[in-house]
């Protein structure tokens, strides 16, 4: 059984009883795609169970493979049921007095430009804001054939009981994004004449059949949109348009609301907010700027994000920088909608979820809905303007609860709601004798924590230091989640390899001409210490490889120094440093035909928890046929240098005396979710440790609501 619709037969027109629920849906008879026909089911128990009526009530006389998705509506003016069915580049209309016997009436065709077949056609009558009544014919269309959206097209018009006449030849579009398809609408219970609800499938047949990031992380591909409220607005000169706004039902799951002061932005401004499910409202105005907007799903290094803005007369959603894999969205990286050239202001209402962005502009006249590929840690928000300054006024952020965890929440491991820390232990004075009731004396306003209390090291101000350590526990869930705020002072770097010994190091192996050798004494520019790993081995003709022992990636960056030949790994005669995960090279670097040691910093935050090893390969025998490597570090920041002072303000996960996960605040008093994927550590005994070694500016850390869960927090 495929797509269809159902009605409540209040007046017993079908003879199944007053109030029976009658469904009409497409089914390919005998499984033959060229015999898509319309079958009837009925329910006399309110929709709990359905009984098939029998043979198809609307047959596929043309044996076409596109004859589907009947939408039923009652035509009160003519006392008949109307069914609209989708075909290739046309919609066909049938009428019936009893829902069982149907008569073909007419065809509505749209062929130029080609926007494909009518899928999930829609037909309804509603009252506009000027009091006039109108019919609307809609359908999901393949507009990408001719440069239009792949979403819901609609034609306001009139129905005379037998045929449909559109007010205008070309359709309007209810959504201009790439992911609002197969949409359905139904009347609002309280205001059925003036408000309809709508929901769409947030996916696109250009990539729906292919695996994307959420297939791996959450075993789903695509999602449903937020429910919208539709109203019909008179535009003048006899024209009418549907406006969309998120349903007021979202108000019921709002957990926090923040107001952001008016911001004047010329360039980029990162807001002190982090979240995974929220609504952002803002009024944007500008004079000379040529590109203004909001970036959401922002990573710590500002590289990973989705941009929502205005440029050259178009409202756009650019998800290029949130596309993790080349095949995820293909060429459909940016969607855009014309909203008029020469504009100097717009209102944006942006709904962000873990894997979607839905943008409503100018009171819902223009909407763009798109899937995105956010990493769980990509939770930042940034305002931007190019070519001049822009003002962002009346900005509010409403954070939403996770409806799954709200209905069945995990009991927190620690919510810091007691008078003391319980079985957690402290050193120093920074954490006081127990959790704090919000903002402390001399502190900026604290937000983002849950309940009435939180753990903070601001007791006594920024100069106080100390630690707060949990009792031991066994890691038994996939994720450890915690709200963290305060100073952005990460743990010092961890040295993985300094190459100062007589051999490569414990667990390191070598092959080829490098077997049996060790680090070389040298004095290269920027070298650290007295030795480096050098594949010269007496001559450029020497070849071989040096491989590290296996290790688990536990920090966001892998930094090292490199010099020597510029011969990339994926070319002939490579001289390269490679990071290998699951037998695949996932990061690689080479030299620059120079003896000066240059820093390399790999962002590996997406690989935390994975087992890896390093390999230094020398396949070159000509000029600069060697490579020098030194000072391999694991760090929380790029381009780290060993020996930084330990002034951390962090939350750390400790296993067997080693820190295996770490996070710091973001120089903000707002607590944001940190989610650690700890599937590689399940079954091991661990402790959490909150550390404040800092006595300077932002020299404190705050933590709340530590939970163990099967998914990241939002």
In short:
Belongs to the glycosyl hydrolase 32 family. It is built from 2 helices and 51 strands.
Task: Set out the fold topology.
Elements: E1 4-9, E2 20-28, E3 36-43, E4 51-52, E5 68-75, E6 80-87, E7 90-96, E8 103-109, E9 119-127, E10 133-140, E11 152-159, E12 164-166, E13 172-173, E14 181-187, E15 196-202, H1 213-218, E16 223-224, E17 228-236, E18 239-246, E19 254-260, E20 263-274, E21 278-286, E22 291-298, E23 306-311, E24 314-318, E25 334-338, E26 345-353, E27 356-361, E28 366-371, E29 380-400, H2 403-407, E30 425-428, E31 455-456, E32 466-469, E33 473-474, E34 479-486, E35 494-497, E36 509-512, E37 520-521, E38 531-534, E39 544-547, E40 551-552, E41 557-564, E42 575-581, E43 584-590, E44 594-603, E45 611-618, E46 627-635, E47 649-655, E48 658-664, E49 668-677, E50 685-692, E51 701-709
Antiparallel strand pairs: 1-2, 2-3, 3-4, 5-6, 6-7, 7-8, 9-10, 10-11, 11-12, 11-13, 14-15, 15-16, 15-17, 17-18, 19-29, 20-29, 21-26, 21-29, 22-23, 22-29, 23-24, 24-25, 26-27, 27-28, 30-32, 31-51, 32-50, 33-50, 34-49, 34-51, 35-46, 36-39, 37-38, 38-46, 39-45, 40-45, 41-44, 41-46, 42-43, 42-45, ...
